[in-house]
Amino acid sequence: MNLYRRLILVALMLTTAVVVFGAYVRLADAGLGCPDWPGCYGRLTPAHAAEHIHEAHAANPHGPVSMAKAWKEMIHRYLAATLGLLIIAIAVQAWRTRASPCSAPLVASALVGVVVFQGLLGMWTVTLLLKPAIVTAHLLGGMATLGLLAWLALRAWRAEHAEVSMGVLLMARLGFVLLVAQIALGGWTSTNYAALACTDFPTCQGKWLPEADFANAFHIVRELGMTADGELLPLAALTAIHWLHRVGALVAGGVLFLLAWALSRRQATQGIGLALLCAVVLQVLVGVANVVFSLPLFLAVAHNAGAALLVVVMVGVNYRLGRAVASAAAHKLEHARARHKNSYA
To answer: What is this structure's pTM?
Structure first.
């Protein structure tokens, strides 16, 4: 069991690195640093493909291919491949220790499936030339991997339950759904390069309700920067994406703030409530700073890291509250059965 726990801990840290570094690769325009997959021009490393990379860079100095971008892209692939092997090892170990209540072999096996699909999305990201739908799905897959690993870690270390009302649990469930939706909106904003469609705050282009083209903004099957009809994506569409991401932040942030306040009022959940509050406030501040300071790279990457932190915290909140409510329900059922049995004795 100690090996199982160590594997989960290492995989959790590596997944965080893969998610954050993947955001850096995307934001640094290095997603096509190697325009094929899984190698780089069919070679294991950019060093082995140096001739092809230099030729591509000489032909288009401002294009997506350069030696620096190729290394960024390949390092991300190396990290992701290592993570995939770690997760397979976790699944094997989970089945070997399946008799232990700390193990969750079915969840670990599902995680292997997620990682395999994530690998396919990584391939399609390159071969389909950064289609927004594929890149956004790749981001969500990374967050799903992180969330499942966080759940496995909580199960492996037998995290303590926290007694709360059903209302607080439902708020936690709603908060998690809204967080996932907001991350999807954030990914859609980033992959469509709409983060600077509004350069002022709290208004957008000097208006509370700017001109927005939602039809083209959220047409899923299309090329990067193009409408479904093959025309250039208008500014109004980018504005719609950015503005809706702000509205989503207001809604999701409000629910998570209320949840953090409710948790911090109870001694048993005060710690995780304060952790959630800090994560929400930090993420909002970084998001605002990205607009105010015109999306500096380190802040944009930090915003993705903040989303990953919120996923881990919210998995922890839902795990602890859900197990507590389930345990209380099981206890009541057992008590009712005992009373029913005694009544016939």
So the answer is: 0.92
